[in-house]
Amino acid sequence: MSALILADALAGVAGPVLHPGDDGYAAELAGFDLAVPQHPAVVVGATGAADVVAGVRAARAAGLAVGVQATGHGITVPADDALLLTTRRAAGVRVDPVGRTAWIAAGAVWTSVLHEAAPYGLAPLAGSAPAVGAVSYTLGGGLGVLGRRYGWSADHVRRLDVVTADGELRVVTAESHPDLFWALRGGGGNVGVVTAMQVGLVELAELYGGGLFFPGEAAGDVLTALLAVAPQAPDEVSLSVALMTFPDLPVVPPALRGRFCAHVRVTSCGEPATCEDVIAPVRRAATPRLDTVRTMPVTAVGTIHNDPATPRATNSRSLVLHRLDAGTVEALVRHAGPRNAFVVELRFLGGALAREPAVPNAVGHRGGAATVYTAAYPHPTGPTEADAAAEQALLDELAPWSDGGALVNFLAGPRVRPADVRAGYEDDRWERLVEIKTAWDPDNVFRINHNVPPRSP
Ligand SMILES: Cc1cc2nc3c(=O)[nH]c(=O)nc-3n(C[C@H](O)[C@H](O)[C@H](O)COP(=O)(O)OP(=O)(O)OC[C@H]3O[C@@H](n4cnc5c(N)ncnc54)[C@H](O)[C@@H]3O)c2cc1C
């Protein structure tokens, strides 16, 4: 019966409509993260807003949940028995150089926005991996490499086009729907499917930055130096460090191949000399095996972190730290090492990230001093039980420096629990999200995500 309802409701869809067993079904589901196998009842390859409207209405009629997937970098809940909307065909980007904004369709990645904006000397607030979907990154807050200077990506949203659970396409702005506008900027896709968004761009053609790859044995000294300089750095300088073992592969520079390193990431949109003054004590902490800090076009921002680009199984955990001291360094060094098949990343927050934007939004934990992110890559098979236990031991040991908060964008993979998502928001933000969710999606049609469940009737 539900198959008939679906076939009827999806008859006008312009993109492919695929069921289990159809040619192309598995390929349509394929995304970056291989750790969450999915078995949707139907996949709709949306070409635009009309297909999304049809998909949401069809799912409602057939009693199915709705999932959305752009690149598959952030899969958390498998879209099993659901209607999955894939958005990669709707990947357009339009830049307005006069208004300094970009219009970004649901399936576009930051790489496209960077390249469309660069000819005008403009840039979006992309993150460490420009290959992620711009819309979903922004719905989850969006912690960019220039966050300390410009704030969260969600702070720069001007308008969202959204298909809500009733199957209506709505234009959402601060004036039209203040509640939806607040919840969508930081609260993820809980109240609708975003078909496109308009974001502000910043004037920026070049960056100064790159990586300082120190031997892992120097991790303690490097972290100590970073802790001394990063919190006091001017907002235009963002710093982070990853403790990781590089894979022993030909694509990896020989100096790093198979080696455990403290990879310091430097990003500045200010004067190179100022940035060098800030990082001088870090450079003095040890001799880097490789130094890629230089002036670069903003389109090369992805080379600063050099996140993996090929699909892999991953699982990401997140913990926001509220203070940092020598004990934090000891805990990190004790738990991160060549034996681990996961990366431990510490990104310093503060600056504009701590300030609520003119139109407040749902982004949680603005007051954090730093965020710890663990991820299974670069190991292609994903984390073992032992790795997961080691990750947990690290996070447990860091608990005294945290109030238990997490950043939702850094929670991905099969091990994300409802309590992790809850930890993404302070109590007042969570209550407001639940209220808005209950008003706009009381049946929790949009639950294939970092879910904020509605109140039960
Ligand atoms: C290597 C790597 C580096 C990263 N770096 C950063 C970083 O620097 N800063 C940061 O903030 N995050 C970062 N992330 C996290 C990333 O921003 C999130 O995982 C984001 O959700 C990925 O979006 P996607 O569209 O690429 O992934 P997808 O897996 O396609 O989407 C993730 C989820 O978003 C929701 N969603 C997707 N599209 C829509 C839509 N149109 N409407 C409503 N809901 C939607 C769905 O619930 C979906 O399950 C990184 C992730 C990886 C793997």
Gross geometry: globular
**What level of helicity do the residues show?**
25-40%
**Average pLDDT number:** 95
Q: N- to C-terminal separation?
A: 28 Å
- CATH topology category name of the largest domain: Vanillyl-alcohol Oxidase, Chain A, domain 3
Number of continuous helical runs: 14
Gyration radius, in Å? 21 Å
CATH architecture label of the largest domain: 3-Layer(aba) Sandwich
The percentage of residues in β strands lies in 15-25%
Task: Flag low-confidence runs.
Answer: none
What is the number of beta strands?
Answer: 19
Describe the biggest sheet? Answer: 8 strands, antiparallel
CATH class of the largest domain, named Alpha Beta
In short:
By secondary structure, this protein is an alpha+beta fold. It is 27% helix and 21% strand. The longest helix has 14 residues, at 49-62.
Structure, described:
The chain has 457 residues and is an alpha+beta fold. The protein contains 14 helices and 19 strands. It folds into 3 domains: 2-86, Uridine Diphospho-n-acetylenolpyruvylglucosamine Reductase, domain 2 (2-Layer Sandwich); 93-203 and 426-440, 2-Layer Sandwich (Uridine Diphospho-n-acetylenolpyruvylglucosamine Reductase, domain 3), CATH 3.30.465; 206-422, Vanillyl-alcohol Oxidase, Chain A, domain 3 (3-Layer(aba) Sandwich). Strands 12, 13, 14, 15, 16, 17, 18 and 19 form an 8-stranded antiparallel sheet that branches. A hairpin with a 5-residue loop joins β8 (157-163) and β9. α8 (219-229) runs antiparallel to α9 (272-285) and α8 packs antiparallel against α11 (326-335). The longest helix is centred in the N-terminal third of the chain and has 14 residues, at 49-62. Bound molecules: flavin-adenine dinucleotide. Flavin-adenine dinucleotide binds next to β3, α5 and β10.
